Amino acid sequence: MLKEIDTVKLIFGLKIHQLRRDQNLSFQQLSDRTGLAISYLHNIEKGKKYPKADKIIILAKALETDYHSLVSLDADKRLRPVISLLQSDFLKIFPLELFGINPPKLVELLSDTPDKVNAFISTVIKIIRNYHLQGEDFYKAALRSYQDLHDNYFEHIEQAVLRFKEKNGLPQHLPAPTEQLEQLLLKHYGIVVDRDYLACQPALNELRSFFSLARKTLFLNQGLASAQENFLLAKELGFQYLQLAERPYETRMTEADSFDKLLHNFQASYFSVALLMDEREMVQDVEAMAQWERWDDDAFLKFLAKYNVTSEMLLQRLANILPSHFDIKDLFFLRFFTGPDLQKFEMTKEMHLSQLHDPHANQLDEHYCRRWISINVIRKLKALQSMNNTEGPIVGAQVSRYWGTTNAYFCISIAKAGYKAAEDSTSVTIGLLVNDKLRRLFRFLNDPAFPAKDVHTTCERCGISDCGARAAAPTVLQHSRVKADIKKALEGMEQMVKAE
User: Which residues are 368's β-sheet partners?
Assistant: First the structure.
């Protein structure tokens, strides 16, 4: 991540680089004019060195400019887009080094690009501003890209979990009971658990947990299921065992103000899920599920009870296991939230591996396709609630064929009532791209009775004519067709003129 001083150095280096090139000067020629070493000039242009005032005066004279123009953070039109990018939050907060990108080298490449690429950079900056993208948006996007880069499987954390289990005599195949997790926090880290304080603070009612470093206390809110408590206890063990100092202290994070904090939160969560759902046992369970001749909702739900985990933990763990052990890397994970009226469905979490798959978050306030199993399973839950007051979880599965594309996805969705308000609902979904490899792995996909539906991303863009679940008119699609008709008519007119 770029610091303020790094940005100043890079802007100064860009100006020197541009002026030297404008005057067709080699490094040797500029060295002869200034008396500065070639290696030193190289480091200036790369943003590694920032000369003192006397040397800046010498450079300004040699490059036929003035001192204030060189030290100013402004620049001419050609460099302005690159400098605007440097001064924006993007390079300051985006963890380029995590992806093997050297910021000075990136800037050097940008400064050598033609005007059209600079225009592209300017356009990106305008998009960032227009959509009010903040540091937190970049952090989350970077984390998802980091997961994609590693196929959402992190060997070093898996190994850390194995060492932790062996050191503490924990069972390999089944999760440790809640009491044992609490004892480990107290024994190794002097952390006690308090289940009363948060419930007495109305302002903290939405928090599931809070860790007080000063009190060495993990506060858990009341009303948590056993699976939720286990996750939070194991996550705190992850923070402590992995020695993740920069971290959030509350669940869920109220503000992601640094990438390291978001990354460490993810790593502790990964540790927790891996601790509660043994890798080898999960592989065996997937292998057994692959032999099912027909999909079985009840059998799948039994995994929640077996590991005493939440639906999100189960599907997230599948998103670790499938790429690493079964080479199923084209997948996505989605989480939805909706209120009691089922009018607006909000996608609150998403992850894509290998490519950007068809179901994705939409920033245009359009209506997500109601044929998605993610939404249908919530509707089914609502119907069951009205009949027998069930809070879930319930599961559904289907193959979703995306209208206008060749893509189809095998999707598993689990829905349950909201944490604090039972009238709210959430669902989590894992989707796997259907191909020959997936059909060979899961026998039930070849069952003619397995549900399959044509779907799209949003109602506004969908051309499915016989959809009985449409929530909005296909306005975007209609607009596109009007434009296509105009283009076709104009082309036809031109052909008539040529024929005459």
Answer: 458
Which tens digits make up the pLDDT trace of 266-294? Answer: 999 999 999 999 999 999 999 999 999 99
> What was the pLDDT predicted at 500?
65
In this structure, the answer to whether residues 226 and 346 fall within a common structural domain is no
Report CA torsion sign: 186, 250, 240, 151.
Answer: positive
> Within a 10 A sphere around the Cβ of 103, how many other Cβ atoms?
19
Please report whether residue 144 resides in a domain.
Answer: no
Q: Do residue 48 and residue 108 come from a single domain?
A: yes
Sheet containing 192-194: order of strands: 192-194, 217-220, 209-212, 250-251
In the chain, count H helices and then E strands.
20, 10
Structure tokens at 480: 């596109």
pLDDT digits (tens, 9 = 90+) for 214-247: 999 999 999 899 999 999 999 999 999 999 999 9
Domain of residue 187 covers: 151-276
Token pair 């990018």 is at which residue?
85
Do 214 and 234 lie in a common domain? yes
The number of beta carbons lying within 10 Å of the beta carbon of residue 49 is: 16
Q: For residue 109, give the CATH number of its domain.
A: 1.10.260.40
What's the total number of domains in the chain? Answer: 3
Q: Which two tokens stand for residue 143?
A: 């984390």
CA 487 – CA 249 distance, rounded (Å)? 57
For residue 471, is it within any domain?
Answer: no
Give the distance from CA 251 to its chain's centroid: 18
